[in-house]
Design a protein that fits this description.
Length: 361
Amino acid sequence: MTVERTVLLWFGQASQDAATHTNLSAVRTDGKVIWLAGDETASIERLTANDELKPTEYGDERTFRLADFVTLPGQDPDEEADIEGIARTGRFLWAVGSHSLRRRQIKDRHSGAKALKRLSRITGQDNRQLLVRIPVVDVDDLPTLVPSASYDGVVHQAASLAPHENLRELLRYDEHLSAFLAIPSKDNGLDIEGIAVQGDRVYLGLRGPVLRGWAFVLEIRPYVNPAEPARLRLREFEDGMPYRKHVLDLDGLGVRDLCPSGDDMLILAGPTMDLDGPVRIYRWLDACHAEMPEIVRADKIRRERELTFGEGDDHAEGIGLIGPAEDGRLLVVYDSPAAARMTGEGAIVADIVRLPAPAGS
């Protein structure tokens, strides 16, 4: 891995108490700020750079509760949404929950029948079934999430998919993915772990399932009917389906994050199961112009970087471009950071990685 330098991420006491800073699952850069999410809360965090052109640290955290913008699917607005992907494009920020189920873990104090009983229990959380688009405006020269905003004379509200139209429902009869809806995420079940938006295209990367080594990226085209401004709907493609499936040869790995880079798509990839490494960054060439379901293999995808990983810690979970796409610098944030990434003052160390120069440059 080519780490050019590191930056410090400073979180407030509330995020430290909720362990958001050690459960980072998504990041997106946005000028002088970065947007982050942890997989144990139902909020989006904003940190501000000390230097927009060459930051060494981000701080002055502000928390935005999702329930202040949209009606969440669950009864408890503060139940974790397991946000696994953030996208920032145009005048909106997008966020997606994992849509996954989870299997209870055997802890050190459990043994015998009690341990086996825990391992048999599968649970879900309604707030994980979330796809949301929130308007962004500048407040005090900083991008800020707001419930609604007027652009070009049109008022845009924060909007989300209706609970009965969530992505799990969308895939109930899918020939490849439906069989994995009842399987927990770490067992190769459905697990959305990345979102990227280009124009009207929304790409969703799946950590699982991975089928015979092929990873999936879903493409959807959300829109808002002015008569229902708080509701996202999905346009149908030419075949009448509300989504497309692209399958990618990521050497048996699943998608951990997506990040647009010009017309290409950068993909953070790692194991779909509960395993350490390998973790890699791939470039899906011309992904943002795909006009049909694609089989993405050697001629359309390129391995860019190998990332380091720890034993039980330091799992890369989010990537975001720093500066112009042609500079090839990525901010990388980690779930379960190693002890060396946690400073005595409470900051978390993130990496800035340099990607290879484009072919022919």
